[in-house]
Each structure stands twice: as structure tokens, then as C-alpha cells.
Design goal:
Layout lengths: L1 H11 L16 H11 L3 H18 L7 H23 L7 H17 L5 H24 L5 H20 L6 H7 L10 H13 L14 H7 L5 H19 L1 H11 L1 H6 L4 H27 L8 H15 L11 H20 L4 H23 L4
Helix pairs in contact: 3-16, 4-11, 4-14, 4-15, 4-16, 5-6, 5-7, 5-14, 5-15, 6-7, 6-14, 11-12, 12-14, 15-16, 16-17
Length: 384
């Protein structure tokens, strides 16, 4: 027996130690690109954004780049709505009520302040709570009643829009009234850079008869003055960082991706799918309410007929799709939505400065949407 064992071991001497190997050959450039984009989905919108800025800078000259701060102001409401929309789409759903929630919550903030006499800060809190409650309603319809997200949020959108007009009696609260009696409602529209410059110049004893000119003999203060970044823009950037951390570095974020990728597999893995979906819709409602507060700051007034109630849904979905977030759920980055909103803003600003027919803007954005979905389908082949 021992002799056979010795012969067996001698027979293995010099033999290859590799159990099995697969020769896949060198990956082509397209395959490497496909794999990289699958791992980093926000890379595509970032590249498109940089290219768009370079193209418009070359076309319009040096006058384009200084206007980029206007892009941030233009997208501060839609960008925040896109963050809310991203959370829902990552779970393979869609929320058609985000725009209506934003407008209704802005109306609640205004009416609670001027109709009921609540302190403005309390009124803002009530508006934010209302947004979370409406989001909870959508989540309940989706998780408990089992209504598809498209139908559930479509119904909530109509209900909220109707409630908005009935409750407000279509009454607009003017900017001057808000500025004099409840300036906190306009806080997200204020520019911290201007406040900083005014504070420095007051310390220096510098005053102006009316409005501070853009160009004085103080270069650094002039540069800060012309930055024109609002608190609403800072809120957008801050929310993006916060949600990016939550989605990538917390168990809740991993559950969101798991539910969007395969809810049945997530359930088997121990994920509470219903609770995760409920939290997503509630958070989306809260973020939409923040967009409503930003809406007051952006336009300085409270208007129940603001176009965001109708157009905000489509604009947020546009930013999300252009940002590379998969409509099938489970793949995408919150930064993609941020870049997608910026892309739309850059196109609108650049073509507007070039005095191009506005219809070309819609045509180009529509083309970008189709290309984004096509690229998403191509990238998904990596996981197939």
C-alpha cells in the first residue's frame, strides 16, 4: 500500500499546480469602458458636462464661464427635486408628485405664517413635516396597497395639486410682504457672498448710495461679490454630499440598492423591503419640501400656480436620466443626478446666450435623454 502511495506522489512531481484557468484574452477598449462605466455610472454625465462647458466656452468666448454661477441658481430647485427623484428611481420606482409637493409645501409655509400667525421658523418646520407626510402616503400606497409607483404617485400628484389650489384660494403672497415680515422664508434665496462682502465693507466704513457696483478697487471682494451663490445652492450641494454618503456608506443605502436590483432576493437576504421603501418615499417627500422652501427663495414669493408643480416632475426625471441613473433600479449615483441637472442648466444658459431658438434646447435635451437610456442599456450588458 505504501509503495503505491509513493509511486503516486512521484508521478505528481513536476505537474502543474493550477486547477483550472480560463483564457479570456485581452479586453477591448469598449469592454474596458463598459466595465468602468458600470462601476462608476456618474462618469458619463461628468464627461458630458465638462464637454458641454468647453464647447460653449469655445463658441461664446470668455463671457460664458463667468455666468456659470447663474446655472447653479437656475437649477437649485430642480436639482433638489432630482435628488428626491433619484432615491425613488433607485428602488425601481418613480415619483410623479415631487413638483406638486414642493409647491404645496411652499404654500403651507406661507399660509401658516400669514394666515395663522405662526412664527416663520415653525411654519417652515410644518411645511417640511407635510412633505414627509405626503411621501409617507405614497409609500403606504406602494408598500401596503400594492399600487404600482407610477399610478400611486400620479394620483398623489393630482390630489396634492388640487389641495394646493383649494387651500391657498390661489392667493399669491408677494415678495415685499415676505421680505418685511418673514424673511426666513426667503433665506435659501439669499447670497452669503454678498452678506460677507457687505459685512467686511461695513467694518471698513465703506458705504454706497444705492447698489454696490461689481467693480471697485478691491479685487478680492469684487471676486467674492460676483460669485452669486445662494444658500439654496449650498443646500443642494450639501444634500448631495449627505445622500452620497448615506447611499454608499450605510446599511440603509445598501438596502436601497438591493431593493431596486431585486426585491425578492433582498427579502430573502433579510432586508425589510417595505420599511426601506417607506423610508425612501418619506425622505423623498421631505427633500421635495426643502425644494419648496428653496422655491420661495428663488422667486421671493409664494405662488400656488408656480410652474414647478407641473414641470418639476418631468424636469427632475430628465436630470436623473441624463445623470445615468438606471430607470430599472439598483444602479446609479446621486452625483449623476447632480451632474444631470447641471447639464440641463448649461445647455439652457449656453443656447440662451447664443440667442438660439428655445426649441433647439428641448430637442438637444430630448436627444440626451435617449442617448442616456441607450448607454444605460449598453452598460447593463456587463451585469447580464
Amino acid at each position: 500500500m505504501s509503495e503505491k502511495s509513493d509511486n503516486y506522489e512521484k508521478g505528481l512531481e513536476g505537474a502543474s499546480q493550477t486547477v483550472v484557468a480560463f483564457d479570456v484574452g485581452d479586453k477591448s477598449f469598449l469592454m474596458r469602458s463598459q466595465s468602468a462605466l458600470h462601476k462608476t455610472p456618474s462618469l458619463v454625465p461628468l464627461v458630458v458636462l465638462v464637454c458641454a462647458i468647453l464647447i460653449f466656452t469655445g463658441w461664446l468666448g470668455p463671457r460664458f464661464l463667468p455666468q456659470m454661477t447663474l446655472v447653479f441658481q437656475q437649477i437649485q430647485v430642480v436639482g433638489i427635486l432630482a435628488l428626491a427623484q433619484t432615491l425613488v428611481i433607485l428602488t425601481a420606482g418613480i415619483d410623479l408628485s415631487v413638483g406638486a409637493i414642493a409647491v404645496f409645501c411652499s404654500v403651507i409655509m406661507g399660509q401658516f405664517t400669514f394666515r395663522y400667525g405662526l412664527p416663520p421658523a415653525i411654519a417652515v418646520g410644518c411645511g417640511l413635516a407635510a412633505g414627509a407626510a405626503i411621501g409617507a402616503l405614497s409609500g403606504w400606497l406602494v408598500t401596503r396597497i400594492k399600487i404600482p409607483p407610477f399610478i400611486a404617485t400620479l394620483g398623489v400628484w393630482q390630489i396634492v395639486l388640487a389641495a394646493n389650489y383649494i387651500y391657498s384660494k390661489n392667493e399669491t403672497i408677494r415678495a415685499r410682504t415676505i421680505r418685511e415680515e418673514a424673511p426666513i422664508l426667503q433665506w435659501l434665496g439669499l447670497k452669503p457672498n454678498e452678506q460677507f462682502v457687505n459685512w467686511i465693507e461695513r467694518l471698513q466704513g465703506v458705504t454706497y448710495e444705492r447698489i454696490r457696483p461689481n467693480d471697485t478697487d478691491q479685487f478680492l471682494l469684487d471676486l467674492i461679490w460676483q460669485t452669486k451663490i445662494t444658500y439654496g445652492v449650498l443646500a443642494l450641494i450639501g444634500l448631495t454630499f449627505l445622500l452620497a454618503y448615506m447611499l454608499r456608506s450605510t446599511a440603509w443605502g445598501r438596502h436601497v440598492y438591493a431593493v431596486g436590483d431585486d426585491p425578492e432576493a433582498a427579502e430573502l437576504a433579510g432586508v425589510n423591503v417595505k420599511r426601506t421603501l417607506m423610508s425612501v418615499y418619506m425622505l423623498a417627500g421631505l427633500i421635495s419640501a426643502i425644494a419648496g422652501w428653496s422655491l420661495i427663495g428663488r422667486f421671493a414669493s409664494v405662488s400656488p400656480s408656480a410652474s414647478t408643480g407641473l414641470e418639476g416632475n418631468i424636469e427632475s426625471i430628465t436630470a436623473v436620466v441624463i445623470g445615468g441613473i438606471s430607470l430599472f433600479g439598483g444602479r446609479g449615483s446621486i452625483w449623476g443626478a447632480f451632474f444631470g441637472a447641471l447639464i440641463v442648466g448649461v445647455f439652457m444658459l449656453g443656447l440662451g446666450m447664443a440667442r438660439v431658438n428655445p426649441q433647439w434646447t428641448f430637442m438637444l435635451i430630448g436627444t440626451l435623454i435617449i442617448l442616456a437610456v441607450g448607454i444605460d442599456q449598453w452598460i447593463r450588458k456587463v451585469a447580464a
